[in-house]
Amino acid sequence: MNEGEFVYALYVAVTHSDLTHDVVLPPLYEVTPHLFTNSEVIDKAYAAKMTHTPGNFKMEFTGTKKNVEQRVAYFGEDIGLNSHHVHWHMDFPFWWHGDKIDRKGELFFWAHHRLTARYDAERLSNYLPPVDPLYWDHPIKDGFAPHTSYKYGGEFPFRPDNKEFEDVDGVAHIRDMKEIESRIRDAIAHGYITNADGSHTDIDNDHGIDVLGDIMESSTYSTNVAYYGALHNQAHRILGAQSDPHHKFNMPPGVMEHFETP
């Protein structure tokens, strides 16, 4: 069995089962530390373990002073923040088929909106502009080198500056992502979504954001996944695979494809 898959399944089961209310699991950054810190720290820890040498190792944030985005690396690489993100997705799994989770779509929108707003605030306080909107037909201006490795070897892929979006084999075409985004924008403009059976659900009310969040993620609560797709989930996979979109070099998944390293 895949080790990461087992850990994820265990934590989700313990989180949601009525039988495990009193079970306290260790924080994920202790179980899978390689996903929360850089390779340099992990290498030093391995060396200390092999030589039985106690030590404390400080994690330096990625980048250099030549990269202005380094000013906010403390935010994107914060262990507590990334731990919160992965546990949030365990509390509200997109694939959930169990008991109805109240306002799941609304909470999806709220959490990601707050996260983006806080990131913009941190950027402004460091003399950086708010984060640019993502356009599928515009290049990603700033690259990223995570300096993080998988437990059994292999570095997380890096993304160069000014990377043009490419279709990702086996995942999605960029033209389809643009179409899905257009359909969601149309639903917002018209004030309703179109369900799989052709009926309409009004979203111009207090519960509309819950319905909209479900189709944007999308979760199993989406009433028309064939039409509105899975904008958020597919975007993560496309962004994570831009270093090797056609699997030419058999690169491992990128940081955007893990809940621990968004």
List keywords for this structure.
262 residues, mainly alpha, Hemocyanin/hexamerin, 42% helix, 10 helices, di-copper center containing domain from catechol oxidase, 2% strand
Short description:
Helix content is 42%, strand content 2%. With 262 residues, the protein is mainly α. A hairpin with a 5-residue loop joins strand 1 and strand 2 (200-202).
SSE map:
Elements: H1 3-16, H2 28-31, H3 39-50, H4 73-76, H5 79-91, H6 104-125, H7 174-190, E1 192-194, E2 200-202, H8 208-217, H9 225-228, H10 231-240
Antiparallel strand pairs: 1-2
Helix pairs in contact: 6-8
Characterization of the model:
The structure is a single chain. The protein is about 40% helix and about 0% strand. It is mostly helical. It has a single domain (about 5-255), classed as Di-copper center containing domain from catechol oxidase (di-copper center containing domain from catechol oxidase). A two-stranded antiparallel ribbon has the order 1-2. It starts with a helix and ends in a 22-residue tail after the last helix. The model has no long low-confidence stretch (mean pLDDT about 95). Pfam families: Hemocyanin_M. This is Haemocyanin II.
